Amino acid sequence: MVIGNVQEMRAAVPVLPQLPAKPVRDSTVSQNGVLVRLDGLNCEGCTFDGVDLAYGGGQFKCACKISNVRNLVLDGVAMNTVKGLAAFGYTVVRITPKAPAIDLEKPHLSLASVKDTVTWDVTR
Questions:
Q1: What is the tens place of the pLDDT at every residue in 31-84?
Q2: Mean pLDDT of 1-18
Q3: Of 53, 50, 37, 65, whose CA–CA distance to 109 is shortest?
């Protein structure tokens, strides 16, 4: 299709799978370093404390209590959105979370950084 003297470029819009009909209820995850993937999650009354969250752009429903998130890992179309915002001039800032206090009585665990992992604050 031509609009004025500009040809319209068609691109595929991602199709997302439906969420599970029956939600997970009242589950608790409170271990540091556990990765909780939000895509496809249908959860009610769940508690996530001290976890890492991952999001790739899929549907999710989370009527949950979420606290002390250590990292937010974006990939897939979620990462494409961040890159698109940056391409259109929005400021995308990588935020490094504060390191948790180390309890010398417990083993110390570290996470390796993942290429293209972004936590962002979009300001204009």
A1: 887 899 999 999 999 999 999 999 999 999 999 999 988 888 888 888 888 888
A2: 69
A3: 50
Q: Which residue has the tokens 């939000």?
A: 38
Could you tell me the residue ranges of all domains in the chain? Answer: 17-123
Quote the strand ranges of the chain, DSSP E: 2-3, 6-7, 24-25, 28-29, 35-37, 42-49, 52-55, 61-67, 71-74, 91-92, 122-123
Residues 18/1, Cβ–Cβ less than 8 Å: no
The residue behind tokens 């995850």 is 29
Query: Which residues lie closer than 8 Å to 22 by C-beta, 6 or more apart?
Result: 42
